[in-house]
Structures are given as structure tokens and as C-alpha cells.
Predict the structure.
Amino acid sequence: MSDAIIVHEVYKKFGKSKKWLDRVALFRRKKVNGKEEPAMSNGRLNGDHKPIVVAVDHVSFAVERGEIFGVLGPNGSGKSTLIRLIATLLLPDQGTIQVFGYDVVRQPREVQRLINRVSVEASFFKKLSPMENLIYGARLYGMAGADIRRRVVEILTRLGLEKHSIYKPMEEMSRGMQQKVAIARALLSQPKILLLDEPTTGLDPRSKREVQAVIRELNQDYGTTILLTTHDMLEADTLCERVAIIDGGKIVALDTPHSLKGSIPRNGHEPTLEDVFLELTGKQLVKEAED
């Protein structure tokens, strides 16, 4: 089975080093009481100092064609940055990423035609209805035709939206319902790779199950390759064929859920992926609040 995504030694940091800030300060000055003085305060460039944060630290893995692959970790572990790098929304500082053989830096257009992304902070035209938002999105992807409306209704009802909600303004919907519309928008373009960045965060248990059922259906019936980031270990255990646990921007484990759970002591009970995460990182995951 060939690889759909290959991530090799990818490194991404945010912020500027003190050396860079000091160099800028030599050239950027402001007038104070008629005299030019460096635009510095307590050794920092005014308004510009941001400490360096390494979000993704030399990460390597491959996702097979047709696989559901999970990237697990708490908030701030680098999951969302990794998704944005694969989606061509960020450029890596080091390393390479390929999507079906296309390089995300040198061939972003080719990559963008193959993928779609759902994030936890999906945005919409809130005054418009789900139908209007999805038709707009379809046109951006060059999709047209009489069956678009039918497909929109089909996808949204499959995700659990009532038909009357499809024509109401988005601003009248809960965040959980808006997230379903975000997923529907991604499904409409029938991507070869679906990047799901915590897609069920904030959903009630029933909505979670509906979204998870659609993810399985896409993978099994259409062969869609899915990369799923989450801090919900149960979701990862039930959906993913393999998972990578990421902490502090580094992958600390990568294997099938079954193998990962079998790698730690039982301690009198059947281990869970949450037990594996605690064993590897010493951190307890914070449970999300449901909508």
C-alpha cells in the first residue's frame, strides 16, 4: 500500500530570537524628547518580543493510502500546527512534507486539490444559512450543477441536522451544529485526504457518534485517507488504525492502539490509550466540556 502523506524531519517554530531582535533594534529607532534612541525597553524590542516556541520538533511519519491515522495529544502539543503544515497554510522551517508525491512547499496548488480540512475554529458567513454557505464553498472548488443542493441536504441530514435548520442563519445555531456544517463543507468536495483537526470537540455524545459514523463511512466506502487530531483517546481508539502520540512537538510513540495499550503494565485493569499517554508523558489529559 503506497503512502498518501509523508512527513520527514519537519520542524516549525514561532517567535524571534533575541539575536534577531537585537539586530533589528540597531536599525529601528524612535525619537524621545527630540533624541533618537533604540526602540528598546528592558532589553526587548518594544511591541515585537515574542519568545521562541517550538511547535513541531523534527517529526517524521507516513500515512498509508486509505488509512485513518490519529495524532493524539493535549492542547498545545503541536497537533494543529502539524495539520496546517500539511494543508499548506504554514511553511516548515526544516524538513519536507509530501501529499501523494506532491511537495507542500513547491507544489501547493496540486496538494490543495487533493485535500480538505476541518478545524475546531471553522468560520462561516454567520448571517447566511448552511445551504448558502455550502453552495458558496462548492463554487470556490469549481463545483456547480443542479445536484449540488441535493448533495448539501443529503450530507447535512446524514450528520444529524433537521431539514428546517439547513435554511436558517448560522448565527442561530449552536457551536456544535456549526461544526457539523464545517464537516459537511469539507465532505462536499470529496477530497482524497481529509484533515480533521479535533472535529468533534464541543459536540454532545450523540453528535459525536454521528460524525464518527460519517468518518468511517468515508473511509470504508470511498477510500478517503483521513488524518485525525484529537485529545479524545476513546475516539482515537475506536476510529484509528494507527496513532502517533505527540507531546511538546515530538512524537513519543507510534503504533496501533492495540499494540500501544499492550506496551504498558495492566495494573489490574485493561489499559486505555489515556493510560499509555500518562505512562509516556507523565501528563493527565484534561477532559473537554461538551456542548
Notes: The two ends are 39 Å apart (CA to CA). The mean pLDDT is 83. Residues 69 and 227 are 5 Å apart (CA to CA).
